[in-house]
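fyi for ur records
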Amino acid sequence: MTPATYGRRVGALLIDLLMSYGIGAAVFTIGFAVAVSEASVGLGVLLMILGPLAGLIIGIWNKVFKEGKTGQSIGKAQMGISLVDSTTGLPLGAGRCFLREFVFSLLNAITGSLFGILDYLWPLWDQKNERLMDKIITSRVIKSGMTI
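which gave:
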């Protein structure tokens, strides 16, 4: 299992973030514009609520269910890398992917984002090119050469 390069990991993260936050922000912005124009305030407010909700649903589907089943989020698939169990080389499954995201969010919230900064930078000096979350959940991000 060849570790994924830091650049590919960052590229995958940016694609995944753009997907969930980008779509959510676009729908929210359209809703805001509609509400401010007073053309249809109710529709505008509805879109402002649905935008972030859509972004959250897309993010959970992508990072928990899709990545759990295939080892690849949309960003990882585009970058040719996969998230796998460090011992078996198989995808983690939705439960462990959820746990990975939950623990990351919890530790990030408790430390005022310090954990998140360290976690994302950790592969730069780690010999195995692993994040702290990879070490906690016993996972690895590897070059896969395949896209799903």
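The chain has one domain: 6-143. thats all i got for now
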